[in-house]
Specification:
This protein is an alpha+beta fold. The chain has three domains: 97 residues, Ribosomal Protein L25, Chain P; 80 residues, Ribosomal protein L25, C-terminal domain (RNA Polymerase Alpha Subunit, Chain A, domain 2, Beta Complex); 38 residues. The strands form three sheets. The protein has a six-stranded mixed β-barrel. A four-stranded mixed sheet has the order 10-7-9-12, with no helix packed on it. A three-stranded antiparallel sheet has the order 8-13-11, with no helix packed on it. Strand 4 and strand 5 form a beta hairpin. The longest helix has 52 residues. The protein is elongated. The protein starts with a strand and ends in a 51-residue tail after the last helix. The relative contact order is 0.09.
Length: 293
C-alpha cells in the first residue's frame, strides 16, 4: 500500500504575478488542486512544510493528504504531486500542482523503476543503461507502489530486460508494451574509439605549424641569397668606378674589358684601328678587321 503524508494548506483568492510574489516573500508557496469530481481549487502552503514533504517523496510516488482549511473548516483531499515549478537559477520553489484521486477508483500514473544488484556484464566491463526510467501502471490508490524494483544481476553484455519479464506488485497492472526494453548492458567502448581520434587531431596541428615554419625558413634563405647576389653584382660596378681610366689615346691592356655602359677606348690618332700596339688583344666582342688587298 502506498504511503500517505499529510500537508496543511489554505485556500487563496488572489491570482496573478504580483500577489504570487507577495506570497513567496512571506515564505508561502502557491499551488492548485485539480482532477476528481470537484472544481480546481487555488491553495497556498508553508514553504518549510512543503519542502519537507517534497524531500520525503523524492524518487517515488507518495499520496499527499491535503488538509485544506476554508471558512473555519478543514477538508481532506487525497492527491498526487504532478508538477513542481522551481526557479531555473536559484531552485526556489515557485508553484506546485496536485492531482486529486479517488480512494475507491483505479488511477493511471507513472512509477519510477529501479535496478537492483550489479549486472554480470558490468563486472566484465559492460555498462548498465536505463532505456526506461518509469513504467506506466494502473491500480487503486491504496496499491500504488512508490517504485518498481527490477533485479539485473543476471544480465550479461548485450542482454536486456523487457517489460514482459517484470513481475508487477499485487493489484498493479503494467501498461507499457511487453517487448519494450527497460535495462540493457552495453559492451565496453573499444580503446581506439576513445584514443585514436584525439591522437589524430593532436598530430595534425603540429604538422601545419611545422610546414609554416619550413616555408618561412626557406623564404628567409631565398631572401638572404637574393641580397647576397645583389651585393655581389654591385661590387664589380663599384670596383669599376674606382679603377683608373686610361688616358686619352692610350691603348687598353691586353685582356682588359671596358666597363659596362662605357664607350670603347679610342685608338691613337692616325692609326684607324681600335688597338695601337702590336699583339694587343681586341676588346671582347670586337671583330677583327680584314686585310686590305
Amino acid at each position: 500500500m502506498a504511503r500517505q503524508i499529510d500537508l496543511k494548506a489554505n485556500t487563496r483568492t488572489e491570482t496573478g504575478r504580483g500577489p504570487m510574489k507577495r506570497l513567496r516573500d512571506k515564505d508561502v508557496i502557491p499551488g492548485v488542486v485539480y482532477g476528481g469530481k470537484e472544481q480546481a481549487l487555488n491553495i497556498a502552503m508553508s514553504r518549510p512544510e512543503l519542502a519537507e514533504v517534497l524531500h520525503d517523496v523524492k524518487g517515488g510516488n507518495v499520496l499527499i493528504n491535503l488538509q485544506i482549511a476554508e471558512a473555519g473548516t478543514t477538508k481532506n483531499r487525497l492527491t498526487l504531486i504532478k508538477e513542481v515549478q522551481q526557479h531555473p537559477v536559484t531552485d526556489q520553489l515557485l508553484h506546485v500542482d496536485f492531482y486529486e484521486v479517488s480512494a475507491t477508483q483505479k488511477l493511471r500514473t507513472s512509477v519510477p523503476v529501479k535496478a537492483v544488484g550489479e549486472p554480470a556484464g558490468a563486472k566484465e566491463g559492460g555498462v548498465l543503461e536505463f532505456v526506461m526510467r518509469e513504467l506506466r501502471v494502473e491500480c487503486s490508490p491504496k496499491d500504488l507502489p512508490e517504485s518498481i524494483d527490477v533485479n539485473v544481476e543476471k544480465l550479461a553484455i548485450g542482454e536486456s530486460i523487457q517489460v514482459g519479464a517484470v513481475i508487477a506488485p499485487p493489484g498493479v497492472t503494467l501498461l507499457d508494451n511487453k517487448d519494450q526494453a527497460i535495462f540493457t548492458v552495453a559492451a565496453p567502448m573499444a580503446e581506439e574509439e576513445v584514443v585514436v581520434a584525439p591522437v589524430e587531431g593532436a598530430a595534425a596541428e603540429p604538422e601545419v605549424i611545422t610546414a609554416k615554419k619550413v616555408e618561412g625558413e626557406e623564404g628567409e634563405e631565398e631572401e638572404a641569397e637574393g641580397k647576397a647576389e645583389g651585393k655581389g653584382k654591385g661590387k664589380p660596378a663599384a670596383a669599376a668606378k674606382g679603377e683608373a681610366k686610361p688616358a686619352a689615346g692610350a691603348a687598353a691592356k691586353p685582356g682588359t674589358k671596358p666597363a659596362d655602359g662605357k664607350a670603347e677606348a679610342k685608338a691613337p690618332a692616325g692609326t684607324g684601328k681600335p688597338w695601337a700596339k702590336a699583339g694587343a688583344a681586341p676588346a671582347a666582342g670586337a671583330k677583327p678587321e680584314g686585310k686590305k688587298k
